Amino acid sequence: MPSPHKTTSAHQDRPVVPPTRRDEIAAAGSELIGGPAGRWARFGDSAFTPVRVIALVAIGMFALGMVQKLPCYNWAWFRGTSSQYTHACYSDIPHLFIGRGFADGLIPYFDRLGGDMEYLEYPVLTGLFMQVASWLTLPFDGDLQYREQMYWMVNAGMLMICVAVLAVCVARTHRHRPWDALLVALAPAFVLTATINWDLLAVALTAAAMLMWSRGRALAFGVLLGLATAAKFYPFLLLGPLLLLCWRAWKWREFGLAVLGTAASWLVVNVPVMLLAPEGWKKFYSFSHDRGIDFGSFWLIITQRTGADITPDAVNTYASVLMVLACAGIAALALTAPRRPRFAQLAFLVVAAFILTNKVYSPQYVLWLIPLAALARPRWRDFLVWQGCEVMYFAGIWMYLAYTTSGNKQGLPTEGYQFAILLHLAGTLFLCAMVVRDILLPERDGVRRDGTDDPSGGVLDRAEDVFVLGPAAPPPQHAAHAVQGPRVEWGVVRE
Predict the structure, then answer these.
(1) Where are the transmembrane segments (predicted)?
(2) Cα-Cα end-to-end distance for the chain
């Protein structure tokens, strides 16, 4: 029987990387299930392949997150506001079932809503997801509370499908490192935030797009990225890192196909609504522009500590300038690094920069970064440090809301919430620093340590550099492909 660390296809004869032999935290954690696999272990004929195991674990952890929402599902969503915060089980889903007209059979973007929000403030594909869930809820007849519960349950079922897609795509993106996807499946913040909102739809589509790019399918990547952008804005940012990497490797055809696919699929989803319901369609964009400083951002700390009144237009300008500066720094890093950075590394950095500079940080936004972090920096210690900060922020925001809605009788005061924001910012910056270090010192990159180049890079993997602004190292040569000469590892040449 084949070794448990060998792939089965002829063109993929490199060994699967066992995390318990590369990562001390993974090795210690494996003691819970009997310890690391021994050198003589054989799993080649098992039905429990890494991808299947990771998908099952991710679904199981998602279900655990659903259990964490039980106090709210049973009563706290429907009895005032403070209880859902003190139990840290808040979700937008049941509240928007009523608040955005789904309970009354209104059609998003087309039917005008009552109150301050005139139309649904979500991108079109997310609105379609919400509407399909509403249709699937129709057979469940009962009082309004029961219908809210069923709407959340139907959405949870649909989001569970997104979780399975996400787990499979992340596990398959790095062909020889499927176990890195356990970082996604076991991420504490993933468990806690998965059913707060509909972000997992965009996250799963983005992961599928990155899988397509890793397989050299540029057009499919673009189509999926366009769909992801039609569900949430942030996936569009991945075209920036791709531009830099394709520029450095001179892969303009592939980049052009990616842009074409992105634009085409986004237009296919958006143009019908744009033409038939223009006021409803643009609500997402006008709401994003007009929204003031909100929870989770360092802008909130500034306004609370100084009493400054920063208008939406002003904070939009300041945040845009900071984002442009961050992108300029990422561009300089991409074009001057000793070796072209990996796609996942730059993707993580640009999304993290958007999160850090934005005027709002909802707790479920951490889902945007989890799969990118698993691909960019697959080290359990660093990942768990960051996750610990995010869990503290998750608890902090709900305790702060409990404090503000209970007349300051219970929960976390303003200073405590500001500390939770700082923890979130510090954790994200820490992981960014680790990724930047890996780019500048490729020998410290766990993915590249064995001579691998960019397993998520598709056509960029092992491609020659053409345009660089700094010294570029020669491309890596894995031992399996070497005819003669020393084995090349990052920063180390072994005879």
Answers:
(1) 47-67, 119-138, 150-171, 183-213, 219-245, 257-278, 314-337, 343-362, 383-401, 421-440
(2) 32
Q: Where are the domains of the chain?
A: 47-443
The number of CA neighbours under 13 Å toward the Cβ of 453 is 21
Q: Please, where are the H alpha helices in 175-297? A: 182-185, 188-193, 199-214, 218-231, 239-249, 252-276, 278-281, 283-290
pTM: 0.91
**DSSP code, position 460:** G
Give the CA distances from residue 413 to residues 82, 177, 492, in Å, rounded to whole numbers and listed in that order.
14, 44, 52
SS (H, E, C) 312-379: HHHHHHHHHHHHHHHHHHHHHHHHHCCCCCCHHHHHHHHHHHHHHHCCCCCHHHHHHHHHHHHHHCCC
Residue with tokens 């249709």: 135
pLDDT tens digits, one per residue of 430-446? 999 999 999 999 999 99
C-beta of residue 131 within 8 angstroms of C-beta of residue 108: yes
Judge whether 321 and 329 are in contact, CB under 8 Å.
Answer: no
| Number of residues that this document lists for the chain | 495
Instruction: To the nearest 10°, report the CA torsion of 420, 424, 430, 436.
Output: -160
